[in-house]
């Protein structure tokens, strides 16, 4: 091996780095959480209770913002989403290390160093630094421009039968989507409805039927067994005839919405509730801008909610762990909070037990260079023999 001062310096830096750790970065906040839905709020709660300074930056755009009320969230069955978030904010606000901002986030850029740190820039151009990032940025439902769909979304027209199905139990029910989704829908909902129409909007073609048969060869028989008829006409528009928010039945736990579906041909059909099958996309360009690994339009995470970027965690609907609902959002937010906290604690511990702190990698290299000088050069050369 040919001696070079640089080789020696870099070996010496490695030695120094073992013996001495760098101080953890001094940032505006220890954690920045992006997104104030149940996932982000849970992450904020978790880190606040262990007295981590944290800023929640919340664009105030929520996937369930239009729904009348949440269900299947124990202790909060029937709570409107805004009331739920409001109570969460109020309760978290009592922790002095928790901070809130109602802005969007434009960019998140890593800061070079031994430990992770980031500069977060919001929509007003304000910069904040933080050691760890939790993204609870959510997804958006991709709805076609059919008149009446977006307008009535979340109010009698829904995608999640656990969230919204029960309030429409035993009512005339419709499903809108590709034919291959229909049996899956029925298997999720046949305990709620017995008068079911599958509005497959022109997808009952030879290819469509083949897609349906891939998952269930006897899909047709099964649909018929659950009294499900197929309407293949092209949907032109959806008209609301009645608002279930004001028509709730005797106990208040039913919602009698009523819709009239219009088609490009033939007579319209009336239904009280509609379940749809449409894809989702990331609600913000942030994960892509950050270069995170995205799989099937979800931020890829490990079981610890870690993304492909060290120090960045993703929670709630936006992440890849295959579940999108409020309990999942809360669980993943809480889980990320634990990993974020312990990861920072490990960094602090490593830094604390070192004798000398405060040197960056380049400062260490410079110091190594200085200390090596020419005295050690001889010894190095001897050691090479
Ligand atoms: C941010 O939004 C929340 C929820 O809408 C609201 O309660 C709060 O007052 C807002 N904060 C500021 C600083 O505007
Ligand atoms: C935020 O950081 C950017 C990039 O470093 C800088 O151009 C900008 O002036 C900063 N904004 C403020 C408000 O300091
Ligand atoms: C029905 O299918 C047409 C053609 O593929 C599509 O453009 C439209 O968005 C679909 N409508 C609904 C309500 O899914
Ligand atoms: C079966 O579906 C038909 C047509 O949608 C409906 O008229 C009938 O009431 C349904 N039967 C039951 C038991 O709900
Ligand atoms: C369903 O509609 C599509 C598009 O209009 C059409 O190509 C197909 O033949 C229809 N299927 C049946 C069974 O009528
Ligand atoms: C996504 O994350 C999983 C779990 O950590 C990992 O096994 C997989 O390799 C990742 N996928 C990509 C494309 O990085």
From TrEMBL:
Membership in a protein family: Belongs to the class-II pyridine nucleotide-disulfide oxidoreductase family.
Organism per entry: Penicillium nalgiovense
Protein's recorded name: FAD/NAD(P)-binding domain-containing protein
Superkingdom assignment: Eukaryota
Biological processes per GO annotation: cellular response to toxic substance
InterPro entries in the record: FAD/NAD-bd_sf (IPR036188), FAD/NAD-binding_dom (IPR023753), Ferredoxin-NADP_redctase_2 (IPR050097)
Positions of the UniProt region annotated as Disordered: 347-366
Every FAD/NAD(P)-binding domain range: 29-172
Assigned keywords, A-Z: Flavoprotein, Oxidoreductase, Signal
Signal peptide start and end residues: 1-21
Any one GO molecular-function label of the UniProt entry: oxidoreductase activity
Pfam families: Pyr_redox_2 (PF07992)
